[in-house]
Amino acid sequence: MRRPYLAGNWKMNLDRRAARELAGALGEYLEANPASKDIDVGVFPASVYLDEIVRTMGGSRLIVGAQNCCDEEAGAYTGEVSVAMLRDVGASSVILGHSERRHLYGEADELIGRKVSLALLGGLDVILCVGETQEEREGGATEGVVATQLRGGLEAVSASDMDRITIAYEPVWAIGTGLTASPDQAQAVHAYLRGLLSSLYTDEVADSVRIQYGGSVKPSNAVELLSMADIDGALVGGAALTPENFIPILEAGLAAAV
Ligand code: 13P
Q1: For residue 25, with 0-12 CB atoms within 10 Å meaning exposed, 13-18 middle and 19 or more buried, which class applies?
Q2: What is the spatial distance between Cα 230 and Cα 227, in angstroms, rounded to a whole number?
Q3: CA 81 remoteness from chain centre
Q4: What is the domain-level CATH number for residue 29?
Q5: Looking at residue 243, what is its pLDDT?
Q6: What span, in angstroms and rounded, lies between the C-alpha atoms of 206 and 227?
Q7: 98 annotated active-site
């Protein structure tokens, strides 16, 4: 049984006060609900607020991570933030290969693979995102696309580091659109990805790696999605921005944990 992992990708939303209030509300929820020890909960604020959110949440079980990192260790890379800097402010994880990074900022698999290796080397856990566009799905290319993205992202990752990797399947057509992959559609891709992990590594690795679903997850669809055999959590955008929406998604995770 894989431990459900529910994560909120806050993207470029929330100001300092709103970020602190949301993290505080989640921390209080975890504290007040001992059963929540059966799930992992993460938040991924804008990098400028990481320091403050980590310090606010000190001692809580909330995972606090970054939404991106640089593919170089240090030096003349204007505007970038290094793995060491993220570690320095207390981040423990980083989201890499998100479709917004791939499609809006032109990040390719090779670059993402370099970021994944550097993040692991520097002590960050990684959520590696993969997912096809609407056009790719309609063209029957979904499996080929996610396979290339998975292989590229994990290019330099050894089996022994796979316990620090979470995969997030995020179909691009379902992100921020209100369209959600049906539980069966998502399950089919998750099962395919797990099979691929087994061929790239071992059955044990494939069995233990968590694969989150992301793309318009909300309280009304979370239970159904999380009840699927190979869906081990969610990477949530819009619905992770308020406790009113995110906490019911955590509850769905808890229900899936039993
Ligand atoms: P939405 O939940 O807003 O569709 O975003 C999903 C996402 O991109 C999470 O990384």
Answers
A1: middle
A2: 9
A3: 19
A4: 3.20.20.70
A5: 98
A6: 19
A7: yes
Cα 58 to chain centroid distance, Å, stands at 21
The model's pTM is 0.98
- % of the chain beyond a pLDDT of 70: 100
- With the most atoms of ligand 1 within 8 angstroms of its CB, the residue from 216, 225, 245, 246 to mutate is 216
Closest ligand 1 atom number to CA of residue 176: 4
Mean predicted confidence (pLDDT) in 48-53? 97
Q: Report whether pLDDT(98) > 90.
A: yes
Q: Answer whether residue 240 shows pLDDT above 90.
A: yes
Per-residue pLDDT, 179: 85
Instruction: Give the integer Cα–Cα distance in Å for 170 and 98.
Output: 8
Q: Where are the alpha helices (DSSP H) in 6-121?
A: 16-32, 50-56, 83-88, 99-104, 109-121
Q: Is the dihedral of CA 199, 203, 208, 213 positive or negative?
A: positive
- End-to-end Cα separation, the chain, in angstroms: 9
| Structural domain boundaries enclosing 35 | 5-257
Domain count, the chain: 1
Distance 75 CA to ligand 1 centre (A): 32
